[in-house]
Design brief:
The complex is a heterodimer.
Chain A: E1 5-13, E2 16-17, H1 32-42, E3 47-51, H2 60-72, E4 77-80, H3 86-95, E5 99-102, H4 104-108, H5 110-120, E6 125-133, E7 146-150, E8 155-160, H6 161-170, E9 175-180, H7 192-201, E10 206-209, H8 215-223, E11 229-232, H9 234-237, H10 243-252
Parallel strand pairs in A: 1-3, 1-11, 3-4, 4-5, 5-6, 6-9, 9-10, 10-11
Antiparallel strand pairs in A: 1-2, 6-7, 7-8
Chain B: E1 2-5, H1 12-21, E2 26-29, H2 32-37, E3 40-43, H3 49-58, H4 62-70, E4 75-78, H5 80-83, E5 88-89, E6 95-96, E7 103-107, E8 122-130, E9 144-150, E10 152-156, E11 162-168, E12 170-178, E13 181-184, H6 192-203
Parallel strand pairs in B: 1-2, 1-3, 3-4, 4-13, 5-7
Antiparallel strand pairs in B: 5-6, 7-10, 8-9, 8-11, 11-12, 12-13
Classes of the chains: A alpha/beta, B alpha/beta.
Chain lengths: ~260, ~210
Amino acid sequence: MLTKRIIPCLDVKDGRVVKGVSFVNLRDAGDPVEVAKIYDEGGGDELCFLDITASHEKRGTLLDVVSRTAEQVFMPLTVGGGITTLEDIRRLLNAGADKVSINTAAVQDPGFVSAASNRFGTQCIVVAIDAKRVGPMLSTGGKPRWEIYTHGGRKPAGIDAVQWAEQMEANGAGEILLTSMDQDGTRHGYDLELTAAVSEAVSIPVIASGGAGTLDHLYDALAVGKADAVLAASIFHYQTHSISETKTYLHQRGLPIRLVKN
Amino acid sequence: MIAIIDYEMGNLRSVQKAFEAVGHSAVVTRDPKVIDRASRVVLPGVGAFGDCMANLNRFGLVEPICQSIARGKPFLGICLGLQVLFTESEEFGVHQGLNILGGKVKKFPCPSQQSASLKIPHMGWNTIHIKTPTPLLQGIQSDTHVYFVHSYYVEPSDPTVVCTETRYGISFVSSVWRDNIFAAQFHPEKSQRVGLQILRNFGVWH
């Protein structure tokens, strides 16, 4: 049976991990490779690097990080942030990334997603959607709506999030990485209505992101939100919960989960 | 020396690095002479079947691959490198494969035709059920998890080549073994410890 994926995510700036990671057994918690190895040993199902490097000139450092990670970690690696050209994608894949995540560039030119998936295959093109709620809660009897934002959540694009996910699937996206901007960073749980709405609208896998604070939140995103995978950052970085503890818990609650024996 | 065939489809570096991690040196090449001299040959690949065959033809790689297999060299196909061994694929129209193994490459039923709505591509960790033990799976238990990402699967005409099966709505063939050929639908290079064990086994397989 296909298992639900648990994906730790690292924010990387100028080749270093930012948004603190606290592991007792790390020589250098700022080194993405060191952190990647911990997640690998714990049984992470995939790994995600989000590049938040501001200047274009320093982007080369990411290629080095990807390359050093691919040398030591043998699980799928997704890299996102600032990808705007086919050449950007080619360089990342050659360095050892398996998938790239595209956000702003997809909104500016939806044809870019088609071109990228034609060239590299749908399996390596992840479209990231940052969505913000603009309608009422379903629980209040209203019909919820969400709109997408670009440029790291700063610019509203005025596009309906569910329709956008459908269009991106049609354009050749292999997967959707869905972040709730309302929930992101709150640790109050994923936006389950958003996750379920997108997951039901598309036939490609959906990764839920934004808001994980407890193990129950992860369970809800997978069971109620019907996500195929969950992405989380701080819950793992501060060792609030280890990956293996997380997976054991979700497994005990009856979800299909890959357990790794160490 | 292991030759990893480069035909501009997929992340070849990760296959090379995985072999290096288990102590087998490997080169990424499309030079027929290097392939000819290699003791083992690996055909990886992700992407579309038609593009794959077009590139193999364009780079003159069909002959070197077929010769390596005919001469009995250990051969490992990964993902698309499994699929192109077969007769034909229905991906974006009918495309002819290498026809080294008889059979077809078919698409998973689309979500609306299934009872449980399964996402396509089949992406993530799923189990392999061992039907025929092979030296390549030595040290690996049946029903262990490996990493998959694909929308098509192979249907061999000769059931004796089936090595492992996997369930995703339907039961499909997740690896095949015949003589010196082992080919997997999953990605050993992305399957952590289990995958590395398969690559380690391949490096010493006779």
